[in-house]
Task: inverse folding
């Protein structure tokens, strides 16, 4: 992008200079932000916890000696004895099993070192045995004996429990989520500079794109350790008497997308008075009305609601801003996580169909002859069948155990919806086949692949860019329709279409409203952006305006 006044403004500058496309781009960026930020702002795991976890220390001490004894037994075995003793169907070798057992011992040693002080001598002796590859049972027994906890949290050797700091939420974030967050932020910064008509150098552009990729590659090394012995949910652990919490910082929306609470099923948004819980901690599901005696009407059974660690109070207006569904799951958290599924399928499918359609269209329009005939006949056959019918059939037949449903839906939409892009690109390639620069390239003896990809493709890709924008909205609508019919992502993973299908009752209107508005806004914004891009890339339409 060049500063205004130096050169003719680029496509992005001309596109974002228009009010409609600029608003559509901002809406799409914000909607993508819902999915990108979902793992960071909506989770039942806290951002940060500093606490004394006596239950985990006792579990580590209880299992340390049996694991060490198992390691010693495996070390004494030969391969013939291992073949006799291993379980039927097991494929791991004796060396691999021994390595896993020693890693389990190392994990417990790390927990004990981080959670206790004054026990360095016992820990060092056990670590020396681990490093040397020698017998572990004796050192583990001595370590467990010296670290045995008294009721007051001290040990016979003078050690005591200390608070341990953890980052549970970051431990559950994977590298693709970090990459998506970095690219989303970079796109926002670049878009802001384009709107402000500021110069973006090549170095800044490369840095904005390379930084998220580098962070994602390094994230497995930077991410906090996610392994823990106590597999209970964090809210349950923090509420137990075995954990003494010094500080806990939860996400702004302290609910997981699959976290259920039977006591709050079908609860309306908590800023409505009809969603209040009485003094006894009971909330009546459904309508708050009393049936007359002998009427035979069904009355909802009251259930106790308890505010767990990190959650707002039972009647706080911020507890469930968009209400809950039939399983007591927070709708706002599910809408945020549902954006990940719906937008990922929509964007992925649109990119795939644009890629397939562009390549086939360029090849058919440039090579002509029998290649054009084959591509055109295949295109016509695909057009004979309704696209949604094909997508519905393939999605229903796909085995979720072999390929994830979200990926299968994106692939099916991409392999079915490429026909429109191929027709547009083919028509443009036919025009360019006899263009002077193409004839000059042939006269110079350039190879056919070079002419295709270096000369024709860059000039024929303009219709594909416009079709890509329209395809995003269409793919999002298709994915939402499939999820609404129950052929989308697997439960409990949410998507906007699946959320809208959880209740079709007017009494539970809050379930339908948020995901429906998100689908409508994303499809509308993609279409408006496509219209603006078509006007900018077509000089005749732009000049007419």
Result:
């Amino acid at each position: 992008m060049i500063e205004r006044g130096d050169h003719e403004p680029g496509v992005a500058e001309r596109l974002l200079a228009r009010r409609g496309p600029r608003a559509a781009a901002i809406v799409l960026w914000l909607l993508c932000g819902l999915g990108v930020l979902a793992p960071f702002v909506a989770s039942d795991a806290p951002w940060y916890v500093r606490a004394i976890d006596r239950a985990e220390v006792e579990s580590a001490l209880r299992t340390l000696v049996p694991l060490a004894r198992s390691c010693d037994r495996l070390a004494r075995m030969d391969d013939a004895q291992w073949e006799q003793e291993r379980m039927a169907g097991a494929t791991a070798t004796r060396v691999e099993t021994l390595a896993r057992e020693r890693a389990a011992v190392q994990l417990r040693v790390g927990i004990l070192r981080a959670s206790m002080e004054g026990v360095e001598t016992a820990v060092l002796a056990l670590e020396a045995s681990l490093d040397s590859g020698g017998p572990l049972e004796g050192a583990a027994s001595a370590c467990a004996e010296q670290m045995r906890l008294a009721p007051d949290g001290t040990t016979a050797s003078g050690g005591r429990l200390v608070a341990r700091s953890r980052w549970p939420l970051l431990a559950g974030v994977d590298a693709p989520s970090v990459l998506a967050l970095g690219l989303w932020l970079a796109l926002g910064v670049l878009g802001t500079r384009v709107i402000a008509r500021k110069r973006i150098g090549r170095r800044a552009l490369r840095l904005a794109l390379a930084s998220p990729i580098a962070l994602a590659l390094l994230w497995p090394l930077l991410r906090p350790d996610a392994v823990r012995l106590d597999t209970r949910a964090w809210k349950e652990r923090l509420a137990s008497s075995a954990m003494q919490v010094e500080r806990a910082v939860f996400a702004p929306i302290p609910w997981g997308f699959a976290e259920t609470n039977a006591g709050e099923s079908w609860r309306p948004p908590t800023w409505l008075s009809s969603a209040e819980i009485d003094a006894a901690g009971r909330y009546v599901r459904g309508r708050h009305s009393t049936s007359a005696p002998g009427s035979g009407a069904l009355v909802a059974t009251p259930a106790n609601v308890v505010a767990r660690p990190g959650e707002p109070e039972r009647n706080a207006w911020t507890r469930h801003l968009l209400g809950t569904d039939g399983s007591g799951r927070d709708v706002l958290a599910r809408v945020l996580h549902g954006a990940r599924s719906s937008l990922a399928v929509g964007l992925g499918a649109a990119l795939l169909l644009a890629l397939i359609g562009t390549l086939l269209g360029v090849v058919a329009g440039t090579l002509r002859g029998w290649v054009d005939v084959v591509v055109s006949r295949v295109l016509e056959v695909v057009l004979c069948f309704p696209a949604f019918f094909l997508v519905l059939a393939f999605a229903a037949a796909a085995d979720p155990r072999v390929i994830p449903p979200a990926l299968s839906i994106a692939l099916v939409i991409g392999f079915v919806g490429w026909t429109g892009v191929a027709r547009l690109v083919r028509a443009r390639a036919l025009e360019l086949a006899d263009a002077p620069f193409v004839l000059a390239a042939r006269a110079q003896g350039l190879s056919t692949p070079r002419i295709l990809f270096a000369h024709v493709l860059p000039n024929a890709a303009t219709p594909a860019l416009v079709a890509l924008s329209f395809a995003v909205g269409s793919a999002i609508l298709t994915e939402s329709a499939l999820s609404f019919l129950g052929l989308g992502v697997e439960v409990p993973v949410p998507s906007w279409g699946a959320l809208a299908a959880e209740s079709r009752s007017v009494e539970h209107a809050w379930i339908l409203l948020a995901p429906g508005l998100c689908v409508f806004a994303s499809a509308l914004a993609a279409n408006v952006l496509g219209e603006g891009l078509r006007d900018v890339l077509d000089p005749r339409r732009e000049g007419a305006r």
About this structure: Residues 331-367 form the longest helix (37 residues). Residues 1-5, 286-300 have pLDDT under 50 and may be disordered. The chain has three domains: 51-158, 260-293+301-326, 331-544.
